[in-house]
Amino acid sequence: MSFSEHETIARRTNPVAGRGMITTPHHLASQSGLAVLRKGGTAVDAAIAAGAVLAVAYPQMCGLGGDAFWLVHDAARGTTRALNAGGRAAQAVRREDFVALGGIPARGWQAAITVPGMVSGWGEAYAYSRDVLGSPLSWAELLEDAVAYAEDGVPMASSLAQWLREDTRTDAGDARNLQRFAAFRRIFCTAEGDPCAVGRRLRQPELAETLRRLAREGWRAFYEGDIAARIAADMRVHGGLLTEKDFAAHHADWQEPLCVKYRGLSVLNCPPNSQGMASLELLAILDRFDVRALGEGTADYYHLIIEATKLAFADRDRYLGDPEFTDIPLEELLSPEHAAAQASRIDMRRAAASVGPLDPHGDTIWLGVVDARGTAVSMIQSVYHDFGSGIVAGDTGVLLQNRGCFFSLDPSSPNCLAPGKRPFHTLNPPMLLDGGTPRLIYGTMGGEGQPQTQAALVTRIVDFGMTPQEAVCAPRWLYGRSWGEAVNNIRLESRIDGKVVEELRRRGHDAVVTTAFSDVMGHAGAVWRHPETGFLWGAADPRGDGIAAGW
Asked: Which of 345, 400, 412, 466 makes an SS bond possible with 112, Cβ 3.0 to 4.6 Å?
């Protein structure tokens, strides 16, 4: 590992530990996860505890009403498993109804058309931790901090306050005016209707009661008991489609992860309906190039990854959907032959035409954990758009996601809406293994940006020898549309050299310069195991509110 002269922030915040490490985008969540590790809990336990705190403290990004995807590496058995905790569409959905409506709404009760899957993921992961990994901790212990923060209140973080300002503007139309939903306004705004500011205490007593019930009765209470009944009742009153039967039928699924090689290392990710296939195809294409010879931060470096991204996204958009409803040629798409063919299409002198308008994606958290046993977790939770549907269901305190609005209404699309179907999911938690040992646990939020930022982290750490914190802090870019913006372009952080920006424009890229550390790039993180010392190096993103913490 080396230190680049221009990344002094990475020098100041480069945590290294020997027994365990966790990184999340909120410092309280990282501390809760670390406390679990210090009590002898597994990486899975720490991820659940941190994820529960994030569901309270980072509701703009994730919550009990959202979905989750996991990778879990079991060091004792040398196995890695994927866990799909994404929800399925309500049985009552009808494509024709939404066509007549003019599309699937992004906000409101009819935007909440998929069952929240996240809690089922916590439950399945905890069962594995208890029964297979030998966790000494109870399920209730893992939710203690989340219950306390929901009941007593948590200080408003800067990211939460920022998104509240954006999404409570009464002059901004339905997509941004979440104040029009009474329950949302009551929880997240002052009595005068102003969004809560940084440092204000955010109390969520109804969410605390829901979390207490889950701690007492187990995770299935979210799907089979009074919680599901009250969410469904709120749906009925307001014309929503989710029912108690939809909740009762939900289940998370353990799966075999997908894998490609990068520089001889094994890169793993979740299978469809996750876009993990796109993240892996992107790295497989880059593996055909001598990235190091291009130089980190050069116009060639950015151009290559952007062009490879276009090709991977084109395959993704052509094929990705719920594999129970559509055939996806994964073996072909992730083969070395396909990667070579895709690589041959890249012109290093000129940007290819856009692969077509990309769809906007939303808000997410990624967290990573490694424990003293070597067990490792890469996990993502999300409510899709910032604050999801905007609907806090009944008196449960549960903010419901709007992932279902990403379904297509085109009957020829593999992602076309259908009852019981899982939508195309941007969530994809990666992990890089060296000889069967996790070498790099990494990831990010940010929809379209996830595969691109993952590629930035891998190339910067593997090809250029950066520390994880350097790689996270280094200037980033985003190709594609995000947060509802109407055009595709390349957004580049202002720390990228102006001559590089001009060269990218000369090659045909529609390049726009953003702020130095732009929130639109997402909140990334990483945990890297040193191949010689075995020490764990952590990284958290200065674009977020998190820390990496170890012991």
From this structure: 400
- With contact defined as beta carbons under 8 Å apart, do 60 and 150 qualify? no
Helices (H) and strands (E) in the chain, counts: 21, 21
Between the CA of residue 477 and those of 299, 332, 451, 454, what are the distances in Å? 12, 29, 12, 12
Cis peptide before 177 (omega within 30 of 0): no
Same domain, 146 and 167: yes
Whether 300 and 198 share a structural domain:
no
Q: Is 364 a catalytic residue?
A: yes
Q: How far apart are CA 527 and CA 439, in angstroms?
A: 8
Instruction: Check if the beta carbon of residue 370 is closer than 8 Å to that of residue 36.
Output: no
Tokens of 126: 């905890």
Are residue 232 and residue 262 in the same domain, yes or no?
no
pLDDT in tens, 268-301: 999 999 999 999 999 999 999 999 999 999 999 9
Is 8 domain-assigned?
no
What are the strands, taking DSSP E only, across 86-227? 154-155, 201-202
CATH (domain of 526): 1.10.246.130
CB-count exposure of residue 96 (10 Å: 0-12, 13-18, 19+): exposed
Could you list the residue range(s) of the whole structural domain that residue 438 is in? 255-350+428-550
- The answer to whether residues 546 and 464 belong to one domain is yes
Q: Are 200 and 332 contained in the same domain?
A: no
Helices (H), 384-467: 449-458
CA distances from residue 11 to 2, 390, 465 in whole angstroms, order as listed: 10, 39, 15
pTM flag (> 0.90): yes
CB proximity list for 86: less than 8 A, separation 6 or greater: 67, 68, 69, 114, 117, 273, 274, 403, 422, 423, 425, 427
Residue 33 lies in a domain: no
pLDDT digits (tens, 9 = 90+) for 389-412: 999 999 999 999 999 999 999 999
The answer on 249 and 158 residing in a single domain is: yes
Active-site residue identified among 23, 80, 210, 364: 364
Same structural domain, 232 and 192: yes
Q: Are 20 and 440 in contact (CB under 8 A)?
A: no
Contact criterion met (CB below 8 Å) for 435 and 246: no
Q: What is the pLDDT of residues 83-141, one digit of tens each?
A: 999 999 999 999 999 999 999 999 999 999 999 999 999 999 999 999 999 999 999 99
Q: Are 156 and 147 in contact (CB under 8 A)?
A: no
**Whose structure tokens read 């954006």?**
166
